[in-house]
Specification:
It is built from 3 helices and 11 strands. It has 193 residues and is α+β, with helices and mostly antiparallel strands. Strand 7 and strand 8 form a beta hairpin.
Length: 193
């Protein structure tokens, strides 16, 4: 069972790639819910949010449960995963936040940590890929490193594939893309400090 593989892999290596997390029909349905009103992504948190195209070049839209049924279905599926993570790993995850990301050709995201020095509630990062026609050479791969800057994984953004990793442990980057790259990035959160 794949959920058991997820739990085992997060325990042993801290990350897991789940191919076919969603099928092509589910990917299409979610994409159909995304309006064209995407915003330039910012870096930082709280009062320090800022635009910096030298660090990050994607445009995003925060998703919420009040959106159309395909997005609600996605939230429901992620809620099932949250409950399994808590039951199997005792992570105390309380919530899930997520946004749609679009990288135009040439866009990238420099190496970063999602929860540097435990300064946010993010505990488990997720990225779902939505590129149905991705080919070698299209770029936009996710590269994951350990804390000693050793490359652990270079992941192709193929539709339906999702990666899970511990937010505090793995610096990562999105390599420059040569075609439009779409994904949904998300974070399972613990309770506020």
């Amino acid at each position: 069972m794949t959920i058991n593989n997820l739990l085992d892999s997060l325990t042993t290596s801290g990350w897991y790639v789940w191919d076919d997390f969603l099928n092509t029909s589910e990917i299409h349905s979610i994409k159909d819910c995304i309006p064209d009103t995407l915003q330039e992504a910012k870096i930082g948190n709280g009062g320090s949010l800022q635009l910096n195209a030298n660090v990050r070049g994607d445009v995003t839209l925060w998703l919420d449960y009040e959106m159309d049924d395909p997005v609600k279905h996605y939230f429901d599926k992620m809620e099932d995963v949250r409950q399994e993570l808590n039951a199997g790993l005792y992570l105390g995850l309380r919530d899930f936040e997520t946004h749609f990301c679009r990288y135009k050709p040439g866009a990238f995201y420099q190496k970063h940590l999602d929860n540097p020095q435990s300064k946010s509630r993010r505990k488990v990062t997720t990225v779902l890929y939505m590129n149905e026609d991705w080919q070698a050479g299209d770029g936009g791969e996710l590269v994951v490193y350990d804390r000693e800057d050793t490359k652990l994984l270079e992941l192709s953004p193929k539709a339906g594939r999702m990666i899970f990793f511990m937010s505090e442990q793995f610096p990562h980057e999105v390599l420059p893309t040569n075609t439009v790259r779409e994904s949904i990035a998300g974070w399972f959160l613990n309770s506020a400090a």
